[in-house]
Amino acid sequence: MAVQLPHSFSERMKQLLGREYEAFMKTYGEPPHTGIRVNTLKIAADELQRISPYRMEPIPWCSTGFYTIEGARPGKHPYYHAGLYYIQEPSAMAPVELLGVLPGDRVLDLCAAPGGKSTQIAAKLQGKGMLVSNDLHPERTKALAKNLELCGARNAVVLNESPERIAAAFPGFFDRILIDAPCSGEGMFRKDEDMVRQWDENTPAKYAAMQREILRAAALALRPGGTMVYSTCTFSPEENEGSIAGFLAGHPQFSVVADSGTGSFAPGLEPLPGTARLWPHKVKGEGHFIAVLRHNGDPEKEKPAGLWPGDGDKSLLAMPRGESGGRNGEGSKAALARKDKSSAGRGGSRNARNSRISPRNDSRGRSAAITSEGEILASYAEFAREQLGWQPEGCPVLFGEHLYLSSLPREALNGLKTVRPGWYMGHVRSGRFIPGHPLATALTARESLRSLTLPGDGPEAVSYLKGETLSISADRLTVAPGTSPKGYVLVCIDGYSAGWGKWQDGILKNEYPAGWRWT
Ligand SMILES: C[S@@+](CC[C@H](N)C(=O)[O-])C[C@H]1O[C@@H](n2cnc3c(N)ncnc32)[C@H](O)[C@@H]1O
Fold it and tell me: What Pfam families does the database record attribute to this sequence (predicted)?
């Protein structure tokens, strides 16, 4: 057996599994299952299957999930850098499938880093509604934010908060909440030997206490009639059925939803019908526990009061993908101005209040002028007109001179540790608007007035991803009628956006950020 399991873990599993114990233990001698999940914000699953350089076999419980064969190395392909898929352990794809996310929903992913399930939720939302992705650990939110940016999520807010503070800021607000809880990670033992080293027989009880606190806070943020999914990648009953039974005992308004699709997996342990277990000896995956919980309150009678101006009006908060997008998106500028007006003068967020910044030196040591919020928005609007030909929608939120478009009114983020208030548009430097990388990754080629596509199987794609300058003749650019080829170009790989370049006289200056480069 490749993995050295703690004796007390093996004993516990023997007790738990009885006759199935041998089959379970046999899986530790087999290689772990690997998978990718297609990012349908950028490409349809059948299209990726068509262009994929390696074989992909469907994962039964996730229509966008595929097993990859050994040696496929999907992280080392330009398509990964174009955000066409996320590399994810196959059983970890199940919880979001059972959350039932619909475009337009308000979704909270409470324990979200590094973002596997958040990117899956973002794809289900298709740019409509909102995703609040949170993680308690500041370092881990960096990967979370980056993964959401890589997948091209336009409507995600990233927080670094405790569940209690989120519940206090968003009482009864979310339609769906995912709690992919911190756990003892017994299902990861085959993949990650560090998890084995960190485990001792007290570990499950320690996590169970944490999980109950998280569940309690999450319940306060769910709207009556809403759905909450609790999942772990561990086998210990106290962290799974135990945590849920403890939660239900104190929350009679909640129940386990038995008809949620959990029935396609092995049942949870008695006495919790309707919960699901993904066992590594029964499915091709490392293992998960899933409970789908519904708040049985009446959404009409127990409607939470509006939290901020515009709250409850999803049309105001939504940032529809495609509806306002495209080169002819009309009224978007007016909407931007209206939203800005609606939030101005009401205090603004902690960060938005910094929008009029003090004189300071820029990165080259030159004295930067004070840029007012109005100037930044005007500079952005000009950029959008000249480089995109349309105006993306959302509530403007400023961090200094950095502009984000948020799916939340900016006062909603007041006092919360906000890692990303929304879709990053860019910043103003020396009076010019510099577009952000996440703006590029979320655009389609059609949504930029200038674009260039590099073949995914050719050397130019890798050169671009390494940050190199490219020689590109003007006739290779796709430029909208009446637009000069000189300026920012959306660089795509086989038609899928990867980042910005700046073209002039046959040279494409590379704008791919240093921290994202192919190494
Ligand atoms: C199982 S991992 C989440 C994996 C993630 N959902 C994904 O699919 O990529 C659990 C996460 O919970 C975070 N965490 C731990 N305690 C927390 C708490 N009290 N509140 C919120 N997040 C917490 C950890 O930092 C960790 O990133």
Answer: Methyltr_RsmB-F, Methyltr_RsmF_N, Methyltranf_PUA, RsmF_methylt_CI
